[in-house]
Specification:
Helix 1 (about 20-35) crosses helix 7 (about 215-225) and helix 4 packs parallel to helix 5 (about 160-180). The chain has helices at about 20-35, 45-55, 70-85, 110-135, 160-180, 200, 215-225; strands spanning about 15, 35-40, 60-65, 90-95, 140-145, 185-190, 235-240. The chain is α/β, with parallel strands linked by helices.
Length: about 250
């Protein structure tokens, strides 16, 4: 599915975390292609700037924002700056994630902390800064990228599954509060199955790519969530390869 979803995002600003490569880059491309101004938030400066140069070459508005999602103060500072410059975030996509594929008996406290801070606390920090501002403006959309690990785990995935399960629960709560507090705000969790991205291939170089999906499919799913008319909202979507081994 190449650009199969049609949605006009001109005049809206999106922030995508972990956007320098892989799924994040695919999402940034789709959002920019739909007309949104896109903030590429990442700690990988060179890769992020290369993506910005690539997309801006087509006359789009794509800018790099250095951000470590684990740093709550740094996240808050980014949002204050955006507010001060009159360019608030209309669309937030929490995509940044890490994993440590080890048996639990061999994990260190630092490894567990890094995974949980990146995959759970980081998105929560971003949501806190974004949601209260969307409430004040009366609208916006938050998309949290989840995983099949939010529903069913496997060995060597303890911290990752814990983080994604926690983020799914937080996303469901945020969805319910938005339904109560501001019908102009959409909240969507996207449960994505295995993708042919560096996130998978660097850890599992022998992975059978025939069992993986393109990140562009998941990026199109993000666009679909944003395309739903104002009278409806997509709370959660599942998009997995046909041969996904970890679903349901």
């Amino acid at each position: 599915m190449s650009g199969g979803v049609r949605v006009d995002l001109h005049g809206r600003q999106a922030l995508v975390t972990g956007a320098a490569r892989g799924l994040g880059a695919s999402i940034a491309r789709r959002l920019a292609g739909a007309g949104a101004s896109v903030l590429v938030a990442d700690v990988r400066k060179d890769l992020a700037r290369e993506l910005c140069d690539e997309l801006n070459g087509d006359g789009r508005d794509v800018r790099f924002v250095e951000m470590d999602v684990r740093d709550a103060d740094a996240v808050a500072a980014v949002f204050r700056t955006l507010e001060e410059t009159g360019r608030p975030v209309d669309i937030l996509v929490n995509n940044a994630a890490v994993d440590v594929s080890k048996p639990i008996e061999h994990l260190t406290a630092d490894e567990v902390t890094r995974v949980i801070e990146t995959n759970l606390l980081g998105p929560m920090y971003l949501c806190l800064e974004t949601y209260r501002r969307m409430i004040a403006r009366g609208g916006g959309h938050i998309v949290n990228i989840l995983s099949t690990a939010a529903n069913r785990t496997w060995t060597e995935a303890g911290p990752y599954a814990a983080g994604k399960s926690g983020l799914r629960a937080f996303t469901h709560t945020l969805f319910q509060e938005a339904q109560r507090d501001c019908v102009g705000i959409g909240v969507t969790g996207i449960i994505a199955g295995g993708m042919e991205t560096p996130f998978i291939m660097e850890r599992f170089p022998d992975a059978d790519v025939s069992m993986l999906q393109s990140p562009d499919i998941v990026a199109d799913t993000v666009l679909y969530a944003l395309s739903v008319p104002a009278g409806s909202v997509v709370g959660e979507l599942v998009v997995v390869p046909r041969r996904e081994p970890s679903w349901p």
